[in-house]
Structure formats: C-alpha cells, structure tokens
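<instruction>
Derive structure tokens from the sequence
<entry> Chain with its tokenised backbone below:
===
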Amino acid sequence: MQIFADALDKSNLLQGDLLVRNAPLTEALQKAHGYYATATDYTHFLILTQSCDLIRRPPKGCKSRYITLAAARPLQLVIDRFLEGATLDRERLPARICDKSYEDSARQLIERILNHEEEGIFYIPRSASQTVSRDLCIFLTLSVAIRVDHYEACLASKVSQLDDVFAAKVGWLTGSLYSKVATPELANILPDHKRYLRDIYEQTLYREIVWLRKAQYESMKPKLEEWRGANPEVMSGDTLNALVKNIPREAQQVADCVTSALLKKNLITPESADKVRNIISNDGNLKKVLASLADD
C-alpha cells in the first residue's frame, strides 16, 4: 500500500513527514516529553505542523516556533481497546473470548481505519516505510510540540514523507484545511485489496480471539470454571479449541430446553424424549431461524 512519496526531501520538514525515534529525536523529546522518548510503543511520529510554516527561508528560517508531532501506536492496540467492551473472558486463556455480536463492528472499524475514514486516526501500513515493521495508527490527538531548535534532529530522524494527497488528508484531519480531502480507497490502490483486508482481519481479529455468542459462552462457562479450578496454569490452545468444539449447536440447545419443558409438563414421555429432541434439533426451519437471528 503506497502512501509515501518516492522522493525524500532531506533539506526541509513537511507536514506528513514520518520520523523514526532515533538518538537525535529521542534526545529532543527527552527535554520536554520524557515518556514519549522512552515508551516502547512510541517508535514513530508524524509531523502535523503545516509545511508552509516549516519551510526554511533565509535569513530567518521557518515561521513556526514549534514542531507538532503526533505519536504512532500499533493498530492492534486500537482494536484491543475496541474489544474491551466485547470481551467475555480472558482469564488464563490462550485467546480472549469475545461476544460475536461485536464482530461485524470490529471489521467495519478496521475497514474505516484502512481507508483513512476513522476520526482522529491516520493509518500507516506495515512496510510502507523501511522502518515500519507493523501496522501503525497515528493518533492525531496524541500530539506533542517541540521547539524549532530541534529542527535538525527531526531532519535526521525523517525516514519518509507522505504523498501529497495523503499529506493533505492529514492536514484536513488536524483542522489545517477546511474542505474534506478524498484519499484513494483500498480498492483503488491495491490490486488484491480483499486479500489485504483478510490478512489484517486474521492478524487483529482471529489469531488470538475466539468469537462466541453469549449463549454459547454461557454453555461453555461451567467447563471453563471446572478446568480453572483444577489447573493453576494458562490453558493450552488445544484445550480451549476442544471446549469450543464441544459447545452444543444452538439448535441442539433449543431442542434440549424444549424437550425438558415438555417433560416437566408431562406432554411427552421419557421414552420419547430422545426422539423429540432429535426431531427439533434437526428441523430445517429452526436452523434457518437461528441463522437469521445470528446474522442480525
């Protein structure tokens, strides 16, 4: 995904320049923003100050007294924060269990981020620049200002600069421009954008997440609690997969509930209970209804 310009202007700073936190930039940040200089996740920053205020013109230099930088954080962090409200269980589990009703919303969030349509976030894909090894999100509200005295330090840490249309989008997102700037969507700049999306979904939503409907989780929960009571360690992936695999199908759960209710009311005999249960659980119309409810 190409969002950076092929050429790199190393004589001036520009809005949309990507800076890597190297020794000169770390030293500059340390003087006023110590946390940003040492925190593990803060590996890159994007310049938000307008280019017209950063271009150096003799004899006075640039107009701006400060350089505003927005911090980059991993895309996974954004998704994890979204999933906090969707998490059903993660205690000593190899993967968090999430409410399946949030799954579509999570996918839509990722798609908005990748298309630069999520408010306050600018997406930088992994490998877009040589120093970017994972998908990053620039948090436009997570910005710091350093004195223009550190201009040379910023230049020394400049590794890429956004293509003009994406730099303009950053300007609009930060309030520097007053008309919306359209940037190309994934479908227009990636030959196989569907595969790219699938890869991002796999990394962020499926590699370490199990999606279950609440009824499915409640059905499995006693087994989870039983295992945790007998084992102090973190559950293995194989054990969790086996528990998930053994969750009764929703049609089977309905059949069990209905059969139990009919037995209590003496509407069926114990001898016919299994036959009734099988008829209900294999009913095609019931499966269609349950599938439609799941889609909703």
Q: What stands out?
A: Residues 17-206 form one domain. Strands lie at 17-20, 44-47, 66-74, 87-89, 96-99, 121-124, 136-147, 158-161, 209-212. The radius of gyration is 27 Å. The longest helix spans residues 214-230.
